[in-house]
Amino acid sequence: MKTLISVVGTTGIGKTKLAIELAKHFNTEIISCDSRQFFSEMKIGTAAPSEDELSQAKHHFIGQLSVKDYYSIGQFEHDSLELLDRLFEKYDIVIMVGGSMMYEKAVIEGLNDLPEANEENQEKLENIWKTEGIEKLQEMLKDLDPEYYENVDIHNQRRLLRAIDVIWQTGKTYSENISHDKNPRKFKTIRIGIEAPRETVYERINLRVDKMMESGLLDEAKNLDELRKSQEGRNLASLNTVGYSELFKYFDGEWDLAFAVSEIKKNSRRFAKRQLTWYRKEDNIHYIEVGYSEEDFNGLIEYLDSKTSI
What we know:
tRNA dimethylallyltransferase; Rossmann fold; single chain; alpha/beta; Histone, subunit A; transferase; 6-stranded parallel beta sheet; EC 2.5.1.75; tRNA dimethylallyltransferase activity; 2 domains; magnesium
């Protein structure tokens, strides 16, 4: 059976580096399941792989879209499985990497058969979002389904709208709706996680945000600001991404720059906390410590060899 090795972990933990090392070792390619790295205009703020990193192993789903493009998790599932079919004709092993939990889940388990969007519900929720802000939608979802609230990207209004709509239609929490069995996969998945104490995770996030600012995140966000202010931009979930939405408030004069940067760090840490909560519930992740040694990496390869030879 073909094998997908899925590298997971919190934001800023070093997943890209490990994925590239595994891809080079197994002479294979990498699929990204980081939903924000799909957008070509957001390279710095999403910590997309650098040109040097991209040259070391072939990557898929990096910068293939514009922030103006609509791309659903269902489309990603379809496109990823189609790509995997082609890659598995050439390789026995393929690497996947990313911290977007639901996107990983879509590939390795599949999505559930959920009802189509209800137009009346969507219109009502869109109105709430426009008049009371995304915070109101966050509050509503937290009341309706605290479990899903802990895991979802709460800055993505589309995800919030969809979850609340499904809850209203079915009378069940979104967590219940997505807990049913899905279509079995034709490949085996081995999940590898990178772990560290929470304090280390938070420290790495703070340092990474500083490096993003040094690398030009402010200019990258400024290039999106005009679009954000347009009629088209107001409905783009991509522009609600952490690292950009805070800087937009700086551009609008609501916050000073130092406070906006501190908010990027805070919201990135909050996302990492949700990732930690999600991954702790999973019992099929084999962990390696952050800052692993060559000996640790060799031990990981031995583990993977034992699993892929079964």
